Task: inverse folding
């Protein structure tokens, strides 16, 4: 099993603006300018929080957005508006520990999902696209407990206006 974070942030390190909005990203470029499709084809499971799910829920054809993965949303809700997404109420660390060893897990957005996994040294790969945007305030990507975490830089790519940094756990 490998756990991946794959996502885009602003140059000042934010996943979203302070209202959880992604207008800055949508106005900068799209996934067609990245290696998203080949990345997604290697994933078996997606894991996200409720706020990330709400962003997906508002997209056109949202139900077909992640067609080949099992898609889990950490929420207190018993059901979700899209049947392709499965609600999970519990601890993300325990959930990930319970996944079959031959599966690749993509952590999508949400520092509240990512932070506990980083705290437990469970994130194997971090792939970050950096948009050429500064927003000054917002939802930071990293909010784990204070502790030294090292990753090895494997690759730097350029996709249109985006820089992509590919890291792996040593």
Result:
């Amino acid at each position: 099993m490998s756990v991946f974070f794959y996502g885009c942030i602003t140059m000042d390190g934010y996943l979203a603006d302070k209202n959880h909005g992604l207008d800055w990203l949508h106005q900068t470029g799209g996934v067609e300018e990245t290696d998203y499709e080949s990345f997604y084809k290697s994933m078996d499971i997606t894991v996200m929080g409720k706020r990330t799910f709400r962003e997906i829920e508002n997209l056109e054809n949202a139900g077909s957005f992640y067609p080949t993965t099992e898609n889990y949303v950490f929420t207190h809700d018993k059901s979700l508006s899209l049947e392709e997404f499965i609600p999970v109420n519990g601890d993300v660390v325990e959930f990930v520990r319970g996944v079959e060893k031959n599966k690749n897990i993509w952590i999508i957005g949400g520092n509240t999902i990512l932070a506990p996994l980083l705290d437990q040294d469970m994130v194997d790969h971090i792939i970050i696209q950096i948009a050429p945007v500064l927003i000054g305030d917002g939802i930071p990507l990293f909010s784990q407990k204070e502790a030294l975490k090292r990753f090895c830089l494997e690759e730097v790519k350029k996709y249109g206006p985006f820089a992509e940094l590919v890291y792996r756990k040593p």
